[in-house]
Amino acid sequence: MAEAKTILIAEDSSVILNLTRKILELQNYNIIAAKNGSEVMKTIDSQKIDGILMDLNIPGKDGMACTKEIRANANPEISKIPIIAVTGNANNYSMEDFKAAGINAYLPKPVDFDMLVQTVKQYIS
C-alpha cells in the first residue's frame, strides 16, 4: 500500500479544522494543522508536505500571501506543493486572483465534504 500523503490544513477555526481533519484521516491522509501564516511557513520548511488546504483568512500572513511565498520558494519540492484555497470570502477574489497567486483549486465555505475529498484526491493523490 502507498505511503499516506501528508496534508497541511491552514485554518484558524478549530471546528472546521477538526471536521476537516476527521474526514481526511478517514481517507488515510496524515494531517498537520497550522493556525496562522507563520506556522504554515515554518511547517513547510521543516517537513515534507504533499498538499495544503489554505484558509485565505488565517491570522498574521493571510493565505494568499502564504501561497505567493510558497510559489516563490527556491526548492521545487516546496514551490510545487498543491494548494487548495478554502474560503468563505471567495467573492473577494476572482479565479484570476487565485491563479496569479498559484492556487490550484478552491473550495467555498461552508465546506462540502464530498467535494473536499474529491478535490483533495484530484490534486494530492
Automatic annotation (TrEMBL):
Domain Response regulatory: 6-124
Entries under SMART domains matching the protein: REC
Entries under PROSITE patterns matching the protein: RESPONSE_REGULATORY (PS50110)
4-aspartylphosphate: residues carrying this PTM: D55
Keywords associated with the record: Phosphoprotein
Record-linked InterPro entries: Bact_response_regulator, CheY-like_superfamily, Sig_transdc_resp-reg_receiver
Superkingdom, natural source: Bacteria
Protein name: Response regulator
UniProt source species: Adhaeribacter terrigena
Lineage: Bacteria, Pseudomonadati, Bacteroidota, Cytophagia, Cytophagales
